[in-house]
C-alpha cells in the first residue's frame, strides 16, 4: 500500500470515498492523480442546510463549556493525526512537510483556544441611567455557518472557523477548495471522530462537508438559512460573495488578498530582516495570503541587504516538498505559474529589473510539476503590477529616502492584510504601528508579515475584506448579541427623561 493510501486509511478516508468519483485531485509535486472524489450533488445542498438548521435547535441549548469539550476532543484527534494530515497537506498543496505539520498544529492550537473561550463567551454589564435598572449583554448562538476555504491553508482555516463556531453554538457546513479537498476531508474526519467520542449531545448534522466546485459554495452563500458565511480566497471571490450575502442581510467573514510589505530602515538588524524576508517571500512558495510581496528599503541599506538576499536566493533548495531539506516546493498548478510569468513580464514593461529568479525549475524531473526559482524584481516605483497580488514567490523591491514617504507607498495598495517594519529606532517603530502608520489589519515589528499565531485576530482592511478570524474577540462574529435592560424597581421610568402615561 502506498504511503498516501495508508495515510488515508489512518485518517478514516475509505477507498470508496477517494476512488471512482468525478473530481480528480492532483498533486502539484508531480501532477500525479491522488484521488477521485465523489462530488456532492447540488440537489442535496438544501437537505444539508435543513439538517444543519435542525442541529442548531439542539446544539444552541448545550452549555458552551460542554460544547468546548467537543473541540477539546477534536484537538486531541488532530494531535494524533498530525503526521498524516501534515503529509496529506504537503502532497496535496506542495508545502514542505514542516509547514504541513505546522498547519495541523495551528488547528490543535485553535481547538485549545476555543476550549478556553467556551467559558468566556461573555458580554458586559452596563449601568443604567434609570434607578432600579440594569443593562447587560448576552451572546447567543447564531445558526449554521458556511466555511469556504482556499487551497493554501486547507486544514487550518477550516479549524479556525469551525472550532470557534462550534463552541459558539453553531453547526458548520464546510466547502473545501476543489484544489485541495483531501486535507480538508482528513481534518473533517478528525472532527467526526471527536463527535463520535463526544456522544449523544452532538446532534446529527452538527458538522457537514460538501465536495465540489463553485456552484456548491454559491448555494450556501445564497441561502438565507445560513446567517454567517466565512470565505477565504481571492478578492475576486470576495467581490462575488460579499454583495450576495449582504443582499440577504447575512453576516460574512471575508479573508481575501494581501499585498504585504516590509519596511527596512537604516536602523534595522539586516541579518534578522534577511531571515524574515526569506520565510515571508519564499516560504510556502509565496502562496500564503500573508506572504511578503513588497520590500520597501531605505537607500542607505539597500545594496547591503540586496547582496545578502541575492546570495541567499541563489542557494535556495527547490524541490520535492516531502524531501527533508527542501525550502521551496511547487506552485499549486500551471495557472499559478502562468500568472507569475505574466506579472514578471508586466513588471519589466513597467520599468522593473529582474535581479534573480522567475524561471521554471526542475522541469525535466517533474514535467507536470510547476516549480519556480523565486524572483526578486527591483522597481523604479510602485507601478500597477506592484499593487496587484500575484500568488507566487515574486518579491518587488522599492527604494525610499524619506520615512513618511515609505509609509505612504506602503499604504498605497488596494489590499490591507499584513505588514511589518524592521527597525530598532523606536520613533520609526511606533510611527509604523500608530494611527498614521501601516493601514493593515496586522502590523508587525521585527518579524515578517506571515506566520501569525492563532491568539491574535487575523484579517485585514480594504480589499482584504475588513473582517477578523481566529483569536482575540473574533468569536463574537459567530454569535448574536442581545442587549437586555432589566427593571427591578416598582416604577416604569422612560429613558431620556420622557414622561408619557
Ligand atoms: C492564509 O494564508 O490564508 O499567518 C492564512 C499565517 C498563517 C495563516 C495564513 N498563520 O501566515
Automatic annotation (TrEMBL):
Belongs to the aldehyde dehydrogenase family. The active site is at 255. It comes from Variovorax soli. SUPFAM superfamilies: ALDH-like (SSF53720). InterPro entries: Ald_DH/histidinol_DH, Ald_DH_C, Ald_DH_CS_GLU, Ald_DH_N, Aldehyde_DH_dom, ALDH7A1-like. Residues 21-482 form the Aldehyde dehydrogenase domain. Its EC number is 1.2.1.3. The keyword Oxidoreductase applies. Homotetramer. Signal peptide: none annotated. Coiled coil: none annotated. Pfam families: Aldedh. Keywords: NAD, Oxidoreductase. This is aldehyde dehydrogenase (NAD(+)). GO terms for molecular function: aldehyde dehydrogenase (NAD+) activity. It is an enzyme of class 1 (oxidoreductase).
Amino acid at each position: 500500500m502506498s504511503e498516501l493510501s495508508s495515510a488515508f486509511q489512518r485518517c478514516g478516508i475509505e477507498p470508496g470515498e477517494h476512488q471512482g468519483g468525478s473530481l480528480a485531485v492532483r498533486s502539484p509535486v508531480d501532477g500525479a492523480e491522488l484521488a477521485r472524489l465523489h462530488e456532492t450533488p447540488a440537489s442535496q445542498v438544501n437537505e444539508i442546510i435543513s439538517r444543519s438548521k435542525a442541529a442548531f435547535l439542539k446544539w444552541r441549548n448545550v452549555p458552551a463549556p460542554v460544547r468546548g469539550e467537543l473541540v477539546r476532543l477534536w484537538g486531541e484527534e488532530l494531535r494524533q493525526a498530525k503526521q498524516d494530515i501534515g503529509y496529506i497537506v504537503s502532497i496535496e498543496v506542495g508545502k514542505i512537510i514542516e509547514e504541513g505539520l505546522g498547519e495541523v498544529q495551528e488547528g490543535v492550537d485553535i481547538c485549545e483556544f476555543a476550549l478556553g473561550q467556551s467559558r468566556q463567551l461573555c458580554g458586559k454589564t452596563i449601568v443604567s441611567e434609570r434607578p432600579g435598572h440594569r443593562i447587560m449583554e448576552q451572546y447567543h448562538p447564531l445558526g449554521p455557518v458556511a466555511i469556504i476555504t482556499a487551497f493554501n491553508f486547507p486544514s487550518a482555516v477550516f479549524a479556525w472557523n469551525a472550532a470557534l463556531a462550534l463552541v459558539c453554538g453553531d453547526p458548520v457546513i464546510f466547502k473545501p477548495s476543489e484544489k485541495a479537498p483531501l486535507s480538508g476531508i482528513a481534518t473533517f474526519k478528525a472532527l467526526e471522530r471527536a463527535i463520535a467520542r463526544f456522544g449523544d449531545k452532538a446532534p446529527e448534522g452538527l458538522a457537514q462537508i460538501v465536495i465540489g466546485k463553485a456552484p456548491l459554495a454559491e448555494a450556501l452563500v445564497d441561502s438565507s438559512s445560513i446567517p454567517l458565511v466565512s470565505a477565504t480566497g481571492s478578492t475576486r471571490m470576495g467581490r462575488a460573495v460579499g454583495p450576495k450575502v449582504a443582499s440577504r442581510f447575512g453576516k460574512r467573514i471575508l479573508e481575501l488578498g494581501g499585498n504585504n510589505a516590509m519596511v527596512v530602515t537604516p536602523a534595522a538588524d539586516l541579518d534578522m530582516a534577511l531571515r524574515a524576508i526569506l520565510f515571508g517571500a519564499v516560504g510556502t512558495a509565496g502562496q500564503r495570503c500573508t506572504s511578503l510581496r513588497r520590500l520597501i528599503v531605505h537607500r542607505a541599506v539597500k545594496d547591503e541587504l540586496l547582496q545578502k538576499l541575492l546570495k541567499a536566493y541563489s542557494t535556495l533548495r527547490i524541490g520535492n516538498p516531502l524531501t527533508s531539506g527542501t525550502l521551496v516546493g511547487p506552485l499549486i498548478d500551471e495557472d499559478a505559474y502562468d500568472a507569475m510569468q505574466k506579472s514578471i513580464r508586466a513588471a519589466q514593461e513597467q520599468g522593473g529589473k529582474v535581479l534573480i529568479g522567475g524561471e521554471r525549475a526542475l522541469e525535466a524531473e517533474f514535467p507536470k510539476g510547476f516549480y519556480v526559482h523565486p524572483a526578486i524584481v527591483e522597481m523604479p516605483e510602485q507601478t500597477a503590477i506592484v499593487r496587484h497580488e500575484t500568488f507566487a514567490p515574486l518579491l518587488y523591491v522599492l527604494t525610499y529616502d524619506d520615512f513618511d514617504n515609505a509609509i505612504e507607498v506602503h499604504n498605497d495598495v488596494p489590499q490591507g492584510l499584513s505588514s511589518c517594519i524592521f527597525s530598532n529606532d523606536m520613533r520609526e517603530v511606533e510611527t509604523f504601528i500608530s494611527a498614521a502608520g501601516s493601514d493593515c489589519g496586522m502590523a508587525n515589528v521585527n518579524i515578517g508579515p506571515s506566520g501569525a499565531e492563532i491568539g491574535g485576530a487575523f484579517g485585514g482592511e480594504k480589499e482584504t475584506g475588513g473582517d477578523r478570524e481566529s483569536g482575540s474577540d473574533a468569536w463574537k462574529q459567530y454569535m448574536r448579541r442581545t442587549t437586555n435592560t432589566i427593571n427591578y424597581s416598582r416604577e416604569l421610568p422612560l429613558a431620556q427623561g420622557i414622561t408619557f402615561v
